[in-house]
Sequence to fold (900 residues):
Amino acid sequence: MTIAAPMPVSERSASARMTPPSRFGDKAFEWLTLGMALVVILMIFLIGWQLTRGSSLAIQKFGLRFLTTSTWDPVAEEFGALPFIYGTLVSSLIALLIAVPLSIATAIYLTELAPLWIRQPIVSLIEMLAAIPSVILGLWGIFVMIPWLRNYPFPLLKKLFGWTPFFTGPILGPSMLAGGIIIAIMILPIITSVSREILRSVPNLQREAAYALGATRWEVTRIAVLSYALKGLFGAVILGLGRALGETLAVTMVIGNTPQIAASLFKPGYTLASVIANEFTEATTEIYLQALVEIGLVLFGVTIAVNLLAQLLLRTMTTTSTTRAVQ
Amino acid sequence: MKTLIMTNLSMSTSDPIVLETRERGTETVPDTEEVPLTFRIKNLSIWYGEKRAINDVTLDISANAVTSIIGPSGCGKSTLLRSLNRMHELVPGTRIDGAVLLLGENLYALDVDPATVRRRVGMVFQKSNPFPTMSIGENVTIGLRLNGVRDQKFLNERLEKSLRMAALWDEVKDDLHKPGTSLSGGQQQRLCIARALAVEPEVILMDEPCSALDPIATAKIEELIHDLKAQYTIVIVTHNMQQAGRVSDYTAFLYLGRLVEFGPTTKIFTNPSDPQTEDYITGRFG
Amino acid sequence: MMHSKRKDRHRWRKFKSALVSFGTFAAAVSVIAPLGLVFFHLLVNGASSVNWDFFTQLPKPVGSPGGGMVNAIVGSLELLVLASVVGIPIGVLGGVYLAEYGSARGNSMLRFLADVLNGVPSITWGVVVYGLVVLRFKGFSAYAGGLALGIIMVPLILRTTEEVILLVPNGYREASLALGIARWKTIVHVVMKTASKGIITGILLALARIGGETAPLLFTAFGNRFWNHDLSQPVAALPLQIFTYAIAPYDDWHRQAWAGALVLVIGIFCVNVLVRILTRERARTTA
Fold:
């Protein structure tokens, strides 16, 4: 090892060349980043304020009747949102009934039961499904899913359950049931991935204790994992519901877009998001437009409430990875 | 005057401490009366929230010498070391009482910017941490560059000087563009030393710099410390008592935040005044 | 006697377990089945129409066959750029704040709000930007569309940026500060640089997400059958075009919608694959 001749301590050439430190840069940067972070709060207020402002006429004119009347008549300028509220709720409910069992079962499979080599490929495939845009699923829905539904499952359902009010009437294709099914496909990935994170966050100690008592794989899952994770799984479901409520394009393309409240799932329906998508640019009068904005306000209010609930539930079991899975 | 360096400590509680003397050139350990001081620590107390980590410590650090701080885990060694360049302030909720004078100036005066302090008092950490996205050369010069130095020629000069002082130049001079993380553990630590040296500090603090290194790399760094003290004041925290005995001129023994004893290393290890010191040195507790 | 009874019960429990394993496997298959089906039909119906014309021609007048979607592809790219101008600075810097500054409680509230915002339906943003921009400036525009998409990007990028910055080991921050480097320079030149791959993958994921968004564009960008290089005018976008063509009564438009869908999906998947490659490299270097 060689060492250069020692430098005289008095020669502080580097210090002379360095710029003196200033606290300004630190403060400025902190304020800048804080401002950007606060945009999040700004965004929430912005929506609420803008939607309320843009629907003030309609709110004044219709008041709470808006939520309970089912007439949607642009010509007579009578607007009631009930058919859309009904459509949103029913299609989302159908979607949950289909998607939740499948998603949670898949999550259980992936975290507890599947052989290790198969897990990542399946997870990747589900992530790819999540990446498919709504409009493309809607396209597939119109030209592939609906014709198939019309030819096979729907007639079968009618044959088996036609005696109930849910499966009566003519089968056109575009229908509440088709809407529910397509929403189900869209929310499968998110419920699956969040449930998976929830199940993974269950500490292994629980599982090991159950195994030590001689339980089978399924019993370990049922006893040690699921009961522990129940609240979080419920949160995953509510998150899926939030997603279902806001689903727009795919639903619009397959649900039939008729504002009516009917018991039969074969009848076309209409959702809050769909009516905005379809009629916003066609709205000829101010009151028409404002009624649609008010529908947006209703949709916003409902989804915010549902998402708040979902996030609260998820945070009871949280790690940062749980909330990451939301995206 | 021969310097006594302990190379062998008997851990048995009944035998007296066994020493070997070895000649180490013609260096001398100066008398405490005449030696210039770099740091004067006066009645320093540091709190983390409610917990008092450093309790009324008064200590003088001599210039161009190596001072080691030893003591059992949790005694406050690292806190004391970090108070010398205000790095302990990175933990939120710290409170300080007393003063630390660097060449007469109180580091904790209200108008002092911690960044200025840290340019004068450099630090090397336990786990070597060359910046992963930068090359060897960029690692060394980063302190200068981010503090406003633009002159490329000057940067290259400092680069070579710092790497030479860290005894790393010959090994890396053809590979300066390679990532800092491509070096071995010992080399990475010497790179971190070079990085600290580049901004021309007056003091180098070392927080257990060899605890993650193998004996050969450790020996190289100890030799480096010995060579560096001609120009710098060095304060080193170590949990390895033999190392303290090998490299340092002065030793401070800390226990539960209090300075139990401080003095020339030879005295501390051969004839400590305080029975607690003797107990720790002989291994009765640790 | 007792022994065989216990054996029976044990066999039954094992059988139940195997049954559940199979059942959940079947569920997993049914979850990924739609992916396969959609892809299959995209290829079957769209592949033949993804030709040179598609990438170079403008849409033909209503009813006449042929034409392409070149303006929609370019328009989508323009919108992505505009969205990035809004989304990237706010998202990245906001994420930096949450990771490096702030209090535990305040930051936790901000994170919570960002996650809630992620669940707001994208069409809502279309309505908001319509009121803010389209009405005020009396016309649909690329700016409006870009703003709507950019707003959607913000909470996404905020959270991913925050996450990767938190992963940067504290030792690097300490080493940089110990050199007397200012805190903000430490964050920008050391911490963000170390996290840069992660920040970029977060941005790419957000871009892939908004690249397929249609609803917020319906009444902001609005769509355009012709070339448009004036950003203050309506602009075409690929998902919008697909939607318009899909619900129209012309078979030729349906064919082109499939082609457009195939191109869009391939684009999005390429970004996702790129992200996957980048994250795998990151995992390897940190390991």
Q: What stands out?
A: Chain C has two domains: 2-49, 52-286.
